[in-house]
Amino acid sequence: MVTVPVEQNRVGIAQVTDAKLQPGQGAGAGLQAIGAGAQAVGQGMDQLAVANFQEAKRRQAEQRNEDLAAAGKATADLRLEATRSVIDLRNQAAPGGEGHADAAGKWFDEHSQGVLDSIADPKVKRQIAEQLASMHASFVGGEMEWADAKRREKIGSDDNDAVAASAARIETAPDLASAQAVRIEERDASLRRIDSYDLPDDAKAKMRKGVEKNLAKSTLDLGIRTDWKATRELLDKGAFNVLPPEQIDSGYQAVAIEERRAAAVAANQTAIATKAAREAIATVSARQSTGEVVPDAELQNAATMAAAIGDTSTAVTLKAMQRTNGINRETQGWSPEQYDSEIGRLRALGEKRSPEEDIRLDRIQNIAGQRKAEFKENPGQWAALNGHPPPALDYSQPATWEARKAWQQTISAAIGKPVPFLQPAETSRLQAMYADGAGGRLKVINGLAAIGGRTAQQAMRQVAPSDAFAARIVLLPSGDRAQALHGIDARKANTALVDGGASAGDTKATTHDAFIARLGSAGSLLDQGEVAASLEIARNIYADQATKNGINSFNEDLWNTSIHRALGGTRDQNGQWLGGVGSWNGTPVLLPSRLTQHDFETHLSRITWSDKWAGAPVFADGTTVMTPAQVRQFTPIVRADGTYEFHGPNNTILQRKDHSVFTLDIEHRGK
Questions:
Q1: CA–CA separation, 526 vs 112, rounded Å?
Q2: Element spanning 364, H or E
Q3: Sequence-distant (≥ 6) Cβ neighbours of residue 602 within 8 angstroms
Q4: Rounded to whole angstroms, how far apart are CA atoms 514 and 556?
Q5: Other CB atoms within 10 A of residue 196 CB
Q6: Which of 79, 212, 287, 557 could form a disulfide with 242 if both were Cys (CB 3.0 to 4.6 A apart)?
């Protein structure tokens, strides 16, 4: 009996069994069975190959999934690293972003190559390569946009500097015609420069418009200062129509102010000429009335002057006057009180006066009015002619400065207007010393500072009228003056402190903006050159302090203190701030040098006045007197003379009934 091993079933010979061959199934039947078994074996081998292929395919899929997962993490890490690294790339970029996009692309290529190198599966590598290419395009595209923005920013900054230089040329032109010529020249050059920029048309158009406005504004400002008549004609012709309407209106207002000022000057000149004529006539009359023989030419000249001012009766009288001048000579050194005393004595004699005393009384009464007027109008000359010259000054004797100061105050009070502190010869000597190098300059500044207050500043302006720095520093106490001067060298040694620098950022702009914000409108009535000088003094003080204390980065507290000191702030023995920057109703104000913020508020709250006071402020109707409480709603702004004006909304300035500006000496009136 033929049997098939069971093991053959395991390789696919399923048709062969242990059953006996049936009758009639001889050799042929056996061969048929063998063929069937062989076919079954083949089928089993095919199935095994398929199973092996499927297993390999499964393992390949698993490996690809692992590669994709690893590559996904790597690309995510790359995106994160790119986000972090772009900050450094931007910080390292050249001015204007030059070459930044190329550097960003190079960085991305270098870092993405590592991701590709870590992938074994070709299909995954191709897939990730496509993703990285897209990431590269997005990353570099973004940095190209950033670099383009920086380029535009640099172009704009450079162009602003160029426009500022153009405006400076206009502002220093000697006259309006020259300024107009410079304006055209600078405008054409600026427009050609802007056309050469690789910028969009709308950006260029905006820059062109800015150039036109800046140059027009500078020309308008210079024209108002130098030739207001021609400037008004240009305004009428539309020469400044590139400016906004409000600036054109301001131009017309400024021209109107200059016109009124010129009219006032002309009226004053006429008044002065009339006064001079009357004084000359009075002099001739006085000489002639005392019997002095005055030459005919002088008499005729006096008569002509009398006719010119419409005093025809005096012109006739002058031709007949024959008087003595002894009394005139005798009384030249008299004070107003002496005139009054002698006139009172002679009048008291009554009928007992002799003919001679009658003439004397008549002459003195005629002379007294003119002499008293001369005393009030020119007390300095009067004092010198009458034995009261200004006290001598001695730099080694502070008492002499106080004596001169007292003399100046006395004479100023007598005539009702300021009298120069220094005499011409003294001014000339100090100017020579001031021009003799840094040592001489320092000696003059320190010497005049001893005078103190506005008097010291007035004297400094006499010596150096164009030195705004000196005019401000002379107001500071000795310690602050020294620091302000030492700070000049400190700034030169370390420009990063307040003049900018890579390590400190743009401290020049930072200190400027903080100064302007702190000062606000408080210094608007002061000489703006001196306000700018105060900023430089603050920077010098800051630089000196920072250097001495090892401060290398910007310190806001130290800068605020430096501003305060530069604007006159000092500390008293109790550590309280006197003077400097204070506030009123939330608005910055400059405090008097000897008052704290509390004292200033107290002084202003105590000030009172009567409704009948001629100097009281009034409402817009020009007659109704404002109360002190109402005035305190306005902001006090200090003037150059130390008094305060009061400003309100819409450029309102409080006035008196006579339309003059209402002012107060808060420091003294509040006591």
A1: 64
A2: helix 355-377
A3: 670
A4: 9
A5: 9
A6: 212
- φ/ψ (deg, to 5) at 95: -55, 135
List, for residues 551-599, the tens digit of each pLDDT value: 888 899 999 999 999 988 888 888 888 888 999 998 999 998 888 999 9
Tokens coding 301? 């000249």
Find residue 655's DSSP bridge partners. 618, 661
Q: Are 547 and 614 in contact (CB under 8 A)?
A: no
Residue 390 DSSP one-character state: P
- Local structure of residue 200 (DSSP, 8 states): -
CA distance 286 to 321: 9
Residue 158, Cβ neighbours under 10 Å: how many?
14
Exposed / middle / buried, residue 611 (Cβ in 10 Å: 0-12, 13-18, 19+): exposed
Cβ(322)–Cβ(288) under 8 Å? yes
Cα 6 → chain centroid = 108
Distance CA 149, CA 143 (A): 10
Q: Where are the alpha helices (DSSP H) in 92-200?
A: 100-117, 122-171, 176-195
The answer to whether residue 465 scores a pLDDT higher than 80 is yes
Q: 550 near 544, Cβ under 8 Å?
A: no
> What pLDDT does 225 receive?
83
Specify the 3-state DSSP secondary structure of 428. Answer: helix
Sign of CA dihedral 559, 562, 568, 573: positive
- Confidence band (pLDDT; 50, 70, 90) for 410? confident
Tell me if 79 sits within 8 A of 139, measured CB to CB. no
| pLDDT above 90 as % of the chain | 15
Burial per residue of 167-181, b for 16 or more beta-carbon CB atoms within 10 angstroms, e otherwise: bebbeebeebeebbe
Cβ atoms of 89 and 143 closer than 8 Å? yes
Distance CA 44, CA 52 (A): 13
Neighbours of 13 (CB within 10 A): 22
Residues facing 637 on adjacent strands = 645
DSSP state of 567: T
